[in-house]
Queue: 2 jobs
Job 1
Amino acid sequence: MTSTDESLQTTPIPVMTTRPRWRDTFVSLRVANYRLYAGGQIVATTALGMQRVTQDWLVLQLSGSVAAVGITVAMQFAPMLLFGLLGGVIADRYSKRLLLMITQTTAALISAVLAVLVLSGTVQVWHIWALALLGGFVTVVDNPARQVFVNEIVGPKLLRNAISLNSSTFQLGALIGPAIGGLAITAVGSGWAFAINAAACALVVLSLALMDASTLHHTPVRPRAKGQLTEGLRYVGRKPAILFTIVMLGAVAFFAYTMPVLLAAYANDVFKVGAAGYGLFNALVAVGALTGAVLSTRRLSVSLRLVVGGAAVLGVVQATTALAPGLVVFALLITAGGAASLLFLTSANSLVQQSTNLGVRGRVMALYILVQLGGQALGGPLMGFIVERVGPEAGMAVSGIVPLAAALAIAIVVMMRGHLRLTLCRDGRLPSLRLVAPATDSTCAR
């Protein structure tokens, strides 16, 4: 298939010339189907936050090993690393709504089994690992289908806003879930957290079933054909903005998105605040992330420069967190890290989705998610090893320094490819550094 194939041509990226009005911050919620979808996601992510906190803490208590928590994270994300691209092919071939109903039903069954094992007192670490692995296979199809389905709900005009709101609803659930989960462990036991998540997944299936299918912006379904997997990879290779964004995402996911392992170690070994403290740490990260998600709806545009710069800021914040002298400073820094993390993630997600044609978007987003979750699958055990051998502070420092170095490296490569250089511009109220071509130095063009 040639690069001139119509299905692989990129749709123009919508560019806003004025900042959105504050009353339009949640404009996607004016779409009835999206309100159903977002409501279901808030419930589901709250319960999922409870489950993950409970699951990680349960493994730590059963095994006494932070490395075992890292293995749990790996079990969740390893299937995406191995089979994630296949999930993108499936998402491009079949109805996204139907796929999501199937995956959420399966997730409900997994959570129900976990609940029975815990409440019956028969749960073992290997049970949790096996079910986490099965849940990882659900994610292989669920995540790319979910990413593309948002466009079908709101259409291209509201896509950027919907992506930011998706992050906001996720973080709202993540804000409430870990705090409730930490309390639930000590109050009623971990089994009920899994039971609640099973019910929440069933509620998501119901919200999908209640949608008005006639108002959806249906994505053309790709017929089965040879070479569709490599077709998606070639598409990414021809698009520098997508390629460099995914490379940057890999560095961030592998090192900076291992916070469950790091926060468990800080709660258990550094500050000794127990399960409730671990839930609070996760909630603080979510508070920052929710703030970042709302702020991301105010952006006029997304660009590779914004993505790389956001990763650099995240790296600086997390590296600084390793030097926190006490609990209060640590809490403030992980909150700031949550905001920086979400701003980076929404920028990267928006840039990739809006730079990709609908006909191949499922496969491109599968690669995006493969890198994001696969990086966590590999990074979780590595961070657990670093924490156990060198300490939580060293692990936190590595989680920031490596993404910062990757951001600087990508910036240098982009400058060299585009023959750009940093120039001090004085055409505004305050001097600023910008990347410009030599021919535009005099005007400091953006």
Job 2
Amino acid sequence: MFLWGTATASYQIEGAVSEDGRGVSVWDTFAGEPGRVRDGHTGEVACDHYHRWPEDVELMAGLGVNSYRFSVAWPRVQPTGSGPVNQAGLDFYDRLVDALCARDIVPAVTLFHWDLPQELEDRGGWLDRDTAHRFAEYAAVVADRLADRVPMWITLNEPFVHMVFGYALGTHAPGRTLLLDALPVAHHQLLGHGLATAALRERGAGRVLITNNCTPVRAASADPADVAAAHAYDTLHNRLFNDPVLLGKYPDMSAYGVRLDCVRDGDLDLISAPLDGLGINYYNPTRIAAPSGEGLPFTDAGITGYPTTAFGWPVVPDGLRELLTGLKARYGDALPPVYVTENGCSQHDEPGPDGTVDDRARIDYLDGHIAALDRARAEGVDVRGYYVWSLLDNFEWAEGYHQRFGLVHVDFATGRRTPKASYHWLRERLAERTGADAGPREP
């Protein structure tokens, strides 16, 4: 069946950061440092999903989705990133998976959505090759507990974004500012993916994927300098994380003075082990111009002429079709089935006088992107799932609680959940589509 779902991430919704044996994550540390997160917000409580998860499962059931993508918090399972397992943390995810299965909602587990245990970061984090091996051990622990009921596993979420914002630019945890010297983070995350894939397979896990954030890249002009810069950006954003997984090799980056000296014999064999699908997160295309002196071989020139989200991101629905058909053209038979594992928009959503939340802009956004998804499938791209980001308004990283992506409004003072107009619209849309349009059948 085609998977129509919604998605969340552990640090963004769970809260309970110091309960039941959970260890400290890099996001706990980062959010606790003055000036790191807007208005000093933290994920200490977030949506309180750790305590209110039964209510959230009922919201999913009411929405009519048949899958839920969520992430496991590594420090909740292994407080220091290695060694002893926190059984109370595993028990939480065990209860959640059982409840999803009871509601016929397919659990799709992401193992890493950026909340690295702080103790591993203190040893070097993803700059250190050993973190990849610790990640595989953690993957094995989670699979030992959940693989009998979880048919879909995602190793990493958006390794490009974690590398760039966390290690190159410092706007996300752990807050390092290494620019291109952050590139070993790319390889060590991908090596962790390869090692974790092997560990998952050994434990009978079903489908194994990686989720990459991808963007169609457009040159700002026909000027050769802009075209070359766009190629550089496409290489570093898209190909650096897709080529090793799908083709077993890194793209040539020598023109940018980039070398990955950390790659060892056999690494790419592990990284390119066959996958059951490729997760793709899409938000917008990117327009690139020649570098302007920031130490990078490109400049983001911005996209104009389109409506924007509250984040200021351009709303370009056909960019999703462009991205998916472009992946098929680039990788051909090497491209496995694709799952759109995130797609959504932030808006300034607040309840009106009658208590309802009218988020018409989000309805238009989703309607346009689902139509673009249909066009990509009609053009021959094997897409097998679509997940709306996000089920709930949540802690939006460095923006704190200022950006609302949810189908469900959350009052962060009380935790009260209010389904928005987009929730009701999507429920009706899914009721219309699920029977007649199931998409390509799962093997």
